[in-house]
Write a structure and sequence with these properties.
Elements lengths: L24 H26 L9 H11 L2 H19 L8 H32 L2 H9 L10 H26 L1
Helix pairs in contact: 1-3, 3-6, 4-6
Length: about 180
């Protein structure tokens, strides 16, 4: 069976990363959610330092209910997923001006963060293997932590977002100086 080229046309499009990226307004959503999460964490830390979580405090009944609510697994996982989504919104959304320079900055940032994270992982491995006393290792394992317990995905995304935004700001400043 032969197909006629007039009736059968194949539309070819160039594959680019830009086609997979989210619109720019997703960055604003991601930054807003991330800011609200950080503000809530900081407010909780201030309340803790002020002694609001102590059983003798006048505000303890309110905070005890809050502690019980936050202590549940599904709330902690929901907040973690929300933080990851907000960081993904920031990382996978377009910039206002998306050109070849942004593509190079993204690729360079991924390489830099991967290299830095590899070095950090090696350092943590060496400290974990050779630097911990037996008592400290037992204490850490008995509290539910394992090797690399602080090498989390959120930190990797956060490092990527911070490094990429700093590189974009430095590139924009360089361009404005050239004009």
């Amino acid at each position: 069976m032969c197909r006629d080229n007039k009736n059968f046309s194949v539309m070819r499009t160039k594959f680019t990363i830009k086609r997979l990226m989210l619109p720019h307004y997703f960055q604003k959503i991601g930054f807003t959610v991330l800011f609200l999460e950080f503000a809530c964490v900081l407010a909780g830390m201030v309340c803790y330092w002020a002694g609001a979580f102590d059983p003798g405090s006048a505000s303890y009944p309110f905070f005890s209910a809050l502690i019980d609510f936050y202590g549940t697994t599904w709330v902690r996982m929901s907040l973690r997923v929300l933080a990851l989504l907000s960081l993904a919104f920031i990382a996978f959304s377009r910039e206002k001006v998306e050109d070849e320079m942004m593509d190079r900055l993204r690729l360079g940032t991924v390489a830099a963060v991967a290299g830095a994270y590899l070095v950090l992982y090696i350092i943590v491995s060496l400290v974990w293997s050779f630097g911990l006393s037996d008592a400290m290792a037992h204490y850490i394992k008995s509290n539910g932590y394992e090797f690399g317990f602080y090498l989390r995905v959120e930190q990797l995304w956060m490092i990527y977002v911070v490094v990429f935004k700093l590189r974009v700001m430095a590139g924009n400043r360089r361009l404005s100086d050239e004009k």
